[in-house]
Design a protein that fits this description.
Blueprint (H helix, E strand, L loop, with lengths): L11 E2 L5 E2 L14 E7 L10 E6 L2 H17 L5 H7 L15 H12 L14 H9 L9
Helix pairs in contact: 1-4
Length: 147
């Protein structure tokens, strides 16, 4: 999955001739896109013949911040641009089987209400002012509990 030197891939060494990837990290398949990198950390401070496996993952708060940034871009898009038109479209009829029950627009309006305190009625106005929107996004805590 990730290309690294052999020293950063193997987690167990018996001697200089035998090495193995016996330590395994199990994760849900829906989290796999959020894993940015996996590495094996070597060092004497671990005091074992196994090595430490480190993960770098995308924070859900980082993802939400990107979604809210894209929402601001969608509201400021001029008429005629396809992403803005799709965002503003109101589909009629019933959704086919297997489709999400909520639209991305509904999800994002709930997200702005929870994270920024902007009610859905005022959502059309605030992102149109770029300076106000970016200052609101800066107020978001980067990690849970840090702010």
């Amino acid at each position: 999955m990730f290309k690294h030197k052999g020293a950063h891939q193997y987690t167990w060494y018996q001697d200089t001739l035998r090495r193995s990837m016996i330590d395994l990290v199990v994760m849900s398949s829906d989290l796999r896109p959020h894993v940015l990198d996996t590495r094996v950390k070597r060092g004497a401070e671990l005091s074992t013949d196994h090595h430490l496996v480190l993960w770098h993952i995308t924070s859900p708060f980082h993802i939400e911040r990107g979604q809210l940034r894209w929402l601001g871009n969608l509201f400021r898009m001029p008429p005629g641009r396809l992403p803005g038109e799709v965002f503003r479209a109101c589909p009629i009829g019933k959704r086919p089987r297997g489709r999400p029950r909520t639209r991305w627009r509904d999800y994002v309006s709930r997200l702005t209400w929870e994270r920024l305190g902007i009610p859905p009625e005022e959502l059309e106005e605030v992102p149109g002012k770029r300076e106000v929107w970016t200052s609101l996004l800066r107020l978001l805590p980067p990690q849970p509990g840090s702010g």
